Amino acid sequence: MIFPHSLARPMSLHGRDVVSIRDLSREEIAGLLDSAKRMIPVAEGRRASPLLAGKIVAMAFVEPSTRTRLSFESAVQRLGGSCLTIADAGATSLRKGESLYDTIRMLSSYADAIVLRHPNEGAARLAARASDRPVINAGDGAGQHPTQTLLDLMTIRERFGTLAGLKVVLLGDLKYGRTVHSLAYALAEFGSEITLSSPESLRLPEEHRDDLRRQGAKVHDEPNLERAIRDADVLYVTRIQKERFPDESEYREVAGTYRVDARVLKEAKPQLIVMHPLPRVGEIAAEVDATPHAAYFRQAFLAVPVRMALLSAILDRSGRRP
Ligand code: CP
C-alpha cells in the first residue's frame, strides 16, 4: 500500500544543512517528530512510500558506525531512494591525502544530500561550506550528533507524551560524548530538568554549561548514580569515549566507574526509562534488557522514521540550496 502523500509529506526544511541541533527551531523539531511518528509503518516495512524516489544520498562515514549509517541507509531505501556509501575511509582517496573539503565538494556533484560522520569536531561545518547540497552531521568528534538527538527526543516523547517537566539524568562521559552535547541543549529547549552525573574528569564542559544557563535550564550535578535516579523519568547512559582520550592512562582511570544493573534500578521509579545511544560496552548490564525500563532498542529503531522525516523534509523539492 502506498503511503498517501498528504499523510506522509513532512514539513519543509528544503535544502537546509543540519550540522548542530541549534540549526533546528523548537517548532521544526516538533514537526519532524510528528512526521517521524507517521512514518513508523513505512520504517517497519508495512507500508511503502516513494518520498525519496530518484534521490541519491551519500553516506560519508570517515569514522566507524553501525546504527547511524545503517538506519540512514534503511530510511533512504524504504523511501525509494538510493545511497552512495563510504563505510571505510581507508578505501577512498582520503587515504592518499585528499582533503575533506575536496572529497565533499566532489560528492556533492554525485548526490542530492550528504550525511557525514567524522572524528574531528567542526568537520561537518566545513563540509557544509564545501557542498552545494545539504549536509547532515552524523557525528563530528566530540561536537554534535543532531539526528541522534531527534530520535532520543522521539523515544522520550513516545513514552511520556511530552518532554516538558521530565527529570532526565545524563550519565557518563559528558565531556567527550557528542550525543549529550546535542541532547542537553534540546532538553533545555523543551523544558526538561537535567541532572548531570559523571566522573569528575568527564564533567560537562563549561561552554555547554554556559549554554544551558543562558537557556534558563533547570540543571544540577549529582555524581552519585543511586541518588541521581531516585526521582528521575529518564536515565540516559553513555559510553566512555575511549577513542577521544589524548592519553589512554586517563581513560583507564575512569573505565568501569559506573554501571546500570538491576540493583541500581531498585532505587528508580517504575516508569523510569533507560536510554543509551549505543554501542554499550558494559555500562548497562544485559539483565536490564528484560526489564520494562529498557528503552534503548526501541530508541535504535526510531532512528529510521526520524531519519526518514528529516531527509524527506530536506529533499522535498530539488534538494538544491534555496
Ligand atoms: N548511536 C550511534 O551513533 O551509533 P553508531 O556509532 O553505531 O552509529
Q: Could you explain the architecture of this structure?
A:
With 322 residues, the protein is an alpha/beta fold. The protein has 2 domains: 155 residues, 3-Layer(aba) Sandwich (Rossmann fold), CATH 3.40.50; 155 residues, Aspartate/ornithine carbamoyltransferase (Rossmann fold), CATH 3.40.50.1370. Helix content is 37%, strand content 14%. It is built from 13 helices and 9 strands. A 5-stranded parallel sheet has the order 7-6-5-8-9. A 4-stranded parallel sheet has the order 2-1-3-4, sandwiched between helices. Helix 2 packs across helix 13 and helix 4 packs across helix 13. The longest helix has 19 residues. The two termini are 33 Å apart. The N terminus and C terminus are likely disordered. The site of phosphoric acid mono(formamide)ester has 9 residues, from helix 4.
What global shape is seen? Answer: globular
CATH architecture of the largest domain: 3-Layer(aba) Sandwich
CATH superfamily of the largest domain: Aspartate/ornithine carbamoyltransferase
What value does the Rg take, in angstroms?
19 Å
Bound molecules: phosphoric acid mono(formamide)ester
CATH C-level category of the largest domain: Alpha Beta
**Percentage of β-strand residues:** 5-15%
Name the assembly state.
Answer: single chain
Helix content: 25-40%
